[in-house]
Design a protein that fits this description.
single chain; mainly alpha; 8 helices; about 65% helix
Length: about 190
């Protein structure tokens, strides 16, 4: 047996022991302060149950049970349930999620407006010749000289590509390349 498999079983048994002790101390679900009344304990319970099912069917090759192994990544979340400061941070992030989503929607609407403008202005202009791309600015000259007339990866030919290009520019990662391409735009066709 591999060492990580043994360690996984040890942690599963420790989680089960903790679950049983909390169950005896708090009760399961009926009382006011019982185990499943707190959301963090619900997460712990889910992790324990999926770990148990995973251990029971560890030797089988059924695809549905292999998916349960992916739920092992939830185990570090148990640390959050034992740390008050982390609980507060996670709760604050979850409370702010609605506001963050509103800001994302506003940003996407602004990007959409600029994407529509860019499609109307630059559609069909972001092309280059495969040989000496800064020398041949015409499709026919490029093909005549033996090159291929290619489209840049970042372009404004449709709304999706325009939004992606605007994202690259706003992330400040690849904007100099797109700026150079915009300086070197060609006529449509």
């Amino acid at each position: 047996m591999a060492a990580n498999h043994i360690i996984g079983k040890i942690f599963t048994y420790l989680f089960i022991l903790e679950f049983v002790l909390k169950l005896v101390a708090l009760g399961f679900v009926m009382d006011e302060g019982s185990y499943l009344r707190e959301s963090w304990n619900q997460l712990d319970f889910f992790i324990v149950v999926t770990s148990l099912i995973d251990n029971m069917f560890a030797s089988s090759d059924v695809a549905a049970f292999k998916i349960l192994r992916m739920l092992r990544i939830l185990r570090p979340l148990r640390v959050v349930s034992h740390n008050v400061q982390l609980k507060m941070i996670i709760a604050a992030l979850l409370n702010a999620a609605g506001s963050i989503l509103n800001v994302i929607v506003v940003i996407l609407v602004v990007w959409l407006m600029f994407a529509i403008f860019a499609v109307n202005t630059y559609k069909g202009h972001f092309f280059y010749c495969s040989i000496e791309k800064y020398k041949y600015h015409d499709k026919f000259d490029c093909i005549d000289k033996g090159g291929e007339w290619l489209r840049y990866d970042s372009n404004f030919d449709n709304i999706g590509q325009a939004m992606m290009t605007l994202f690259v520019v706003s992330s400040l990662e690849g904007w100099p390349d797109i700026m150079q391409q915009a300086i070197d735009i060609t006529k449509e066709g």
